[in-house]
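Q: My collaborator sent me two sequences in one message, no labels, and asked for predicted structures for both. Can we handle them in order? The first one she listed is below.
A: Yes, handling them in the order given. First sequence, followed by its structure tokens:
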Amino acid sequence: MIPFLQLKPGEDAASVRDAVERVIARGWFILGPELDAFEREFAAASGASAAVGVGTGTDALAIALRALGIGRGDEVITSPLSAAYSALAIMMAGARPVFADIDPERLTLDPQAAAAAVTPRTAAILPVHLYGQPADMIGIAAVGERHNLAVVEDCCQAHLATCAGRPVGSFGAAAAYSFYPTKNLGALGDGGIITTNDANVAARAKRLRNGGQTDRYHHGEFGVNSRLDEIQAAILRARLQLLPGWTLQRRKLAAEYRRRLANATAVTVPPELDDGHVYHLFPVRSASREAVQSTLRAAGVETLIRYPVPIPKQPALASEQPSDCPIANRVCDEILSLPLYPSLPPNALDIVAEALGER
């Protein structure tokens, strides 16, 4: 069996164990020195001047929006193809998600569709760097500048990715990352972080994550309880050192997948439109997805569909009167993700290629 993911610590097992034991020995578990250090280290790795650790990637998006003053009465343009949490975070901030369709090749928010969705209530654009492929941030940033809109980048699947040579997260006012265990940089639990180059946004995000406190027991505004704990911060510090190597291995595996499947008839591989892609997932498309998935299952290869339902069609979004996005609808009917992670067994690509009739 070739599993879709492998989440147990591997080469990092000893350093992860040491990190946990260090925190336990210190006896400081919330808002302590491990988080302070990880925030500095992650900001440096991501090309940002500041980072604010929070409880989840969803909270990172919602708090980033609130830190920018976006909330009730505002609209935020985002992608219909993503985990629903992207849109739910907009709703958590009190704003309304507005969906603009995707680029059919890049599979991320189409800048022209985003521009067409701007209304007098639009306050921000929230592009998603989906599957590790950066969105067209040159085009999206231009739309934001033209209409005086904030840009908040959803980098939850794009740790260390770049767009046109620039780090993702550096194009807008703030960015959000997730450390859910399946991510390229994953914790052993939940976690998230906000990055920004604006000291005022960082300071407000730090207040908002901690109940809106200006100092202990003094709450200056409505905040939430969303803090990246010391154990997860310590684990992430250990794993951050290995992330560049893991990213290189993901890219090597993706290149080999592309070589093996270049002439495939059962599936098509979305193009790599920027060499800053970090391959959180390796998606393929097929009009006969169920048959392809069944063939791979019979060969012992586990696959997943991410995502089977476009966000505008989720019942939780019905009250927002979302626009239909036909390209995203079609992609959700065809998309299928193949196993791809740094410790993928060497024979896995052989098995996948042979099952799909390729060599």
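Q: And the one she listed second?
A: Here it is, processed independently of the first:
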Amino acid sequence: MGAYLQITPALKTRLGYGEVRGCYYGPRGQTNHRSVTSENGEAFHCDIDLFDAEKDRFPYDDGYFTTVLCCELIEHLPPIPCT
């Protein structure tokens, strides 16, 4: 979550994850196709699913992911009042 494609390529190229997807704030149902190239010319391609993490149901089935990283996101969520 909060995929800026800094650590995301390493999940596939260095850690060997088969499918790597990202998600980011945006209109639910849209997917951006992003690519980055490392300094040594290694290309990485990733789909970034857009939705509102506070309001929308996440567009993934339960158990879809083995690992979920939430990077650069929590500080943008509003505080929830304690009761």
